[in-house]
Amino acid sequence: MLFLLVCFPNVFLLLKVSSANISINGTRGEPLFWPCYHTFSEPFQPNNSLIYWQGCRKPHILLHAYVYGKEEFQHQNRSFKNRTTIFPDQLPSRNFSLIIEPLMLQDDQIDIEVIFRSQIKSTNRFCQTTVYVAAPFQEPKIEINRKEKTATCNTKGGFPEPEIKWSSGDRGTNLKPHKPSTVIFEEDGTFSVSSTVSIIGLQNVACEVYNPTSNQTLTATKEVSVPPPGNKSHQCPQPTEEPSTSERAGGEAADSAFNMPEDHEPKETVSLEENSQLTKL
């Protein structure tokens, strides 16, 4: 097993490299470093060597070429023009790595390998690799339709097609989409995705957008607070019985008694005996 030290600005990577089939992931618009390190028993002779970085499948796409001591671009595939870089000074130390910059969506799932030919040794094929390209999705947004009692999660601008999962934040359970997701393949090669779930009986929902190539997950949450079916949030007041005439009269009398003015005092009464004595006087 071999190790290759790769240096970029502010980044140092120690890569474990082998000649077995591997896969590498990259991001659209950024450089992709394809590590390849292979050893031979005989010394490297650049003036007697042919090296091709090309696609494994037919028709073979030529990414880069090194012919008898110098780089050759005449037969390079048009889609890789001015996008590939090798390390000529490190070829004697068997560093056959390649940089693709910028990485494009059209590079996704391309199978590439190195072909080495020399006058001394027969053709060698090594570093078979599959390239996977990702583009980050925009932050998902959740829209609530209270009339239909549904929530819709929308995102766009990413690649490849994402996986969308719904969950209930208050219950912590997964939710089944209301209907199959709507997936649109845009003109620029990216995807726009929309997914809908029912929110009946839920307090809040969460939508997760997972990119299988970049292994990135974006999450959006939303409070919904939709009452469950059959739950009446507003109730009409119960009608009251009309009081009878006697009850109304009694009530009015009671009210008049309680509403007596504060300065009103009951008059003093005089007995018959006291009245007769006052008459004699």
UniProtKB/TrEMBL annotation:
Residues 232-247, 272-281 have a biased composition (Polar residues). Residues 156-177, 221-281 are annotated as: Disordered. Its main location: membrane. PROSITE patterns: IG_LIKE. Pfam families: C2-set_3. Residues 261-270 have a biased composition (Basic and acidic residues). The keyword Disulfide bond applies. One of its GO terms (cellular component) is external side of plasma membrane. Residues 129-225 form the Ig-like domain. It is a single-pass type I membrane protein. Keywords: Cell membrane, Disulfide bond, Glycoprotein, Immunoglobulin domain, Membrane, Receptor, Signal, Transmembrane, Transmembrane helix. InterPro entries: BTN3A2-like_Ig-C, Ig-like_dom, Ig-like_dom_sf, Ig-like_fold, T-cell_Activation_Regulation. It comes from the Eukaryota. It is found in: Cell membrane. Residues 1-19 form the signal peptide. GO terms for biological process: cell surface receptor signaling pathway; cellular response to lipopolysaccharide; immune response; negative regulation of T cell proliferation; positive regulation of T cell proliferation; T cell costimulation. This is Ig-like domain-containing protein. It comes from Anabas testudineus.
